[in-house]
């Protein structure tokens, strides 16, 4: 019963952050109370949503058509799943996503059309990340390690179908962390 109450309170707090935003400290305060996610419980398609905390990347993924992530096995992960206007999902190769840009200066409105034009180049059928057990902020749990980028996403469990996550990028300044949420999706087709 106590675990269900804690999960309910965490989900309420998370929903509040998703609708109103949060400071970095507030987001970490919730993140640190959550149980570490377990690798073998993550197999599925997950829809992503960002938490606004003041990170320069905020809004870029959303305006580009980012849908979420697909975890097939420890060795086969699609970290960037996007959605076309017709609802079809496709994976993007993160190798082509530049990380050393002034993200806070990039206008968000032309990103969607640019992604449509670039889709034939960016699209991939190959896995571009792996899941591993990693210690982060005092807890050992599921983390997604990009194959060819200096990025690790760390996951904490809100409930069986909701994960709170951070994106740790070695090449970006560490004074801000990108926070996001993943919601398990059932019944939606995705074949890379």
Structural summary, described in words:
Residues 128-184 form the DUF4334 domain. This is DUF4334 domain-containing protein. Pfam families: DUF4334, GXWXG. Residues 29-87 form the GXWXG domain. There is one protein chain. This protein is α+β, with helices and mostly antiparallel strands. The chain has one domain (2-185): GXWXG domain (Lipocalin, Beta Barrel), CATH 2.40.128. Helices cover 23% and strands 38% of the residues. The chain has helices at residues 2-20, 24-33, 60-63, 111-122; strands at residues 35-36, 44-51, 66-73, 76-83, 89-92, 123-124, 129-136, 139-146, 151-159, 162-169, 178-185. Strands 1, 2, 3, 4, 5, 6, 7, 8, 9, 10 and 11 form an eleven-stranded antiparallel sheet that branches. A hairpin with a 2-residue loop joins strand 3 and strand 4 (76-83). The longest helix is centred in the first third of the chain and has 19 residues, at 2-20. The chain is globular, with a radius of gyration of 16 Å. The mean pLDDT is 85.
CATH architecture: Beta Barrel
Largest sheet: 11 strands, antiparallel
* Overall average residue pLDDT: 85
Please give the share of residues in helix.
10-25%
Radius of gyration: 16 Å
Order of helices and strands: HHEEHEEEHEEEEEE
Low-pLDDT sequence parts: none
| CATH fourth-tier homologous superfamily | GXWXG domain
For the secondary structure, the number of strands is 11
What spatial form do the alpha-carbon principal axes imply? globular
Distance between the first and last residues' Cα: 40 Å
Going by helix content, strand content and strand pairing, the class is alpha+beta
CATH class: Mainly Beta
Q: What is the name of the CATH topology?
A: Lipocalin
Report strand %.
Answer: 35-45%
- The number of helical segments is 4
Question: What is the domain total for the residues?
Answer: 1
């Amino acid at each position: 019963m106590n675990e269900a109450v804690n999960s309910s309170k965490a989900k309420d707090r998370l929903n509040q952050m998703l609708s109103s935003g949060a400071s970095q400290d507030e987001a970490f305060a919730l993140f640190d109370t959550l149980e570490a996610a377990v690798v073998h419980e993550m197999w599925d398609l997950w829809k992503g949503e960002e938490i606004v905390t003041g990170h320069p990347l905020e809004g870029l993924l959303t305006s580009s058509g980012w849908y979420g992530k697909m975890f097939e096995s420890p060795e086969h992960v699609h970290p960037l799943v996007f959605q076309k206007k017709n609802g079809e999902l496709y994976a993007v190769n993160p190798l082509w996503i530049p990380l050393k840009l002034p993200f806070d200066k990039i206008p968000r409105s032309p990103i969607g059309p640019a992604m449509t034009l670039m889709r034939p180049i960016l699209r991939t059928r190959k896995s571009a990340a792996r899941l591993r057990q990693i210690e982060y902020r005092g807890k050992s749990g599921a983390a997604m390690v990009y194959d060819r980028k200096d990025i690790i996403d760390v996951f904490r469990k809100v409930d069986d179908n909701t994960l709170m996550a951070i994106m740790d990028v070695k090449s970006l300044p560490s004074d801000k962390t990108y926070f996001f949420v993943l919601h398990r999706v059932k019944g939606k087709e995705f074949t890379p």
